[in-house]
């Protein structure tokens, strides 16, 4: 119930961003409002990062390039878009200019994706053209194993830095370091979510630091591997409310099989 209310409120607050459904500016536990503790970075430092945009150039989600023509993102980013309306910007620190802008040939998202629990929040895009690796464009490896609790990881994106009244997104890519928590720990008494964290998820936490709306679909990376896909959270950087990510190691087989099916 709380989630449904949060969904409605977050849609009202940040209409233009394809946001996960469980983040709310009115969350009773929410006291902060930034992507929270992030810093500007460059695409050369995160060359697998891409921006998903509509035809008018509005950024709506992040994604990760995993091969010459495949981007991994969140299912919830893709639900309301037709292939013909999505553009992918690669190789640019700025989401609104530079690098290359490519069209999409096909998309797929997980059959098990649930809009109520957000389990299986994974999808892929097949690009309409192949892209070569350069200094600013690189394929990232899918993690085979979820990193241990406490492993440092970096999350990046063009998501909002202001949680409530700030409607415009940063043009420059932002990064923040957070620490891995497995789904059981994340759903335990030590944090505030309880049993709404599932085994297709992995969390990452650091006081005052987090992903936020507009970062969805983007990469959580540890040891140069894609470990998580930005999925949801109650608020952003709220105390004891970790960022929740789709767990790439758990979803890897689906990703690989689905890539094959789109070939
Ligand atoms: C969102 O709505 C969203 N704090 C993404 C990440 C987090 C919360 C919300 C994690 O896209």
Could you please describe the fold and organization of this structure?
With 263 residues, the chain is α+β, with helices and mostly antiparallel strands. It folds into two domains: 47-139 and 252-262, Trypsin-like serine proteases (Thrombin, subunit H); 140-249, Thrombin, subunit H (Beta Barrel), CATH 2.40.10.10. 13% of the residues lie in helices and 29% in strands. The chain is built from four helices and 14 strands. The protein has helices spanning 2-13, 75-78, 183-186, 248-261; strands at 39-40, 49-53, 59-65, 70-73, 87-90, 100-109, 123-127, 141-142, 152-157, 174-181, 201-205, 219-222, 225-232, 243-247. It has a six-stranded antiparallel barrel. A six-stranded antiparallel barrel has the order 2-3-4-7-6-5. Strand 2 and strand 3 form a beta hairpin. The longest helix is centred in the C-terminal third of the chain and has 14 residues, at 248-261. Mean pLDDT is 88; it is low at 1-34. The structure holds 4-(aminomethyl)benzoic acid (4AZ). 4-(aminomethyl)benzoic acid (4AZ) binds at residues 19-20, 23, 210-213, 215-216, 230, 232-233, 236, 243. The site of 4-(aminomethyl)benzoic acid has 14 residues, from strand 13. Keywords: Disulfide bond, Hydrolase, Protease, Secreted, Serine protease, Signal, Zymogen. One of its GO terms (cellular component) is extracellular region. It holds the Pfam family Trypsin. It comes from Drosophila willistoni (Fruit fly). Residues 35-260 form the Peptidase S1 domain.
């Amino acid at each position: 119930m709380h989630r449904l209310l949060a969904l409605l409120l977050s849609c009202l607050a940040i209409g233009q961003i394809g946001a996960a459904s469980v983040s709310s500016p009115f969350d009773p536990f929410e006291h902060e409002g930034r992507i929270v503790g992030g810093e500007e970075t460059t695409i050369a430092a995160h060359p697998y990062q891409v921006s998903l945009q509509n035809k008018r150039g509005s950024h709506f989600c992040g994604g990760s390039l995993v091969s010459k023509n495949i981007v991994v993102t969140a299912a919830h980013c893709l639900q309301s878009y037709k292939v013909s309306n999505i553009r992918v910007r690669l190789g640019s620190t700025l989401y609104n200019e530079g690098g290359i802008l490519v069209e999409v040939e096909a998309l797929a998202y997980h059959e098990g994706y649930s809009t109520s629990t957000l389990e299986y929040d994974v999808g892929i895009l097949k690009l309409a053209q192949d892209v070569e690796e350069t200094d600013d464009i690189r394929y990232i490896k899918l993690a085979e194993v979820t990193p241990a609790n406490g492993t440092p990881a970096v999350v990046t994106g063009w998501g909002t830095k202001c949680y409530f009244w700030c409607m415009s997104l940063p043009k420059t890519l932002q990064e923040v370091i957070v620490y891995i928590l497995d789904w059981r720990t994340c759903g335990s008494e030590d944090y505030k979510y309880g049993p709404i964290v599932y085994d297709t998820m992995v969390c990452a936490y650091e006081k005052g630091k987090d992903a936020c709306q507009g970062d969805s679909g983007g990469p959580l990376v540890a040891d140069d591997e894609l470990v998580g896909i930005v999925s949801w959270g109650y608020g952003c950087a709220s105390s004891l409310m970790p960022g929740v990510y789709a767990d790439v190691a758990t979803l890897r087989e689906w990703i690989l099989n689905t890539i094959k099916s789109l070939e």
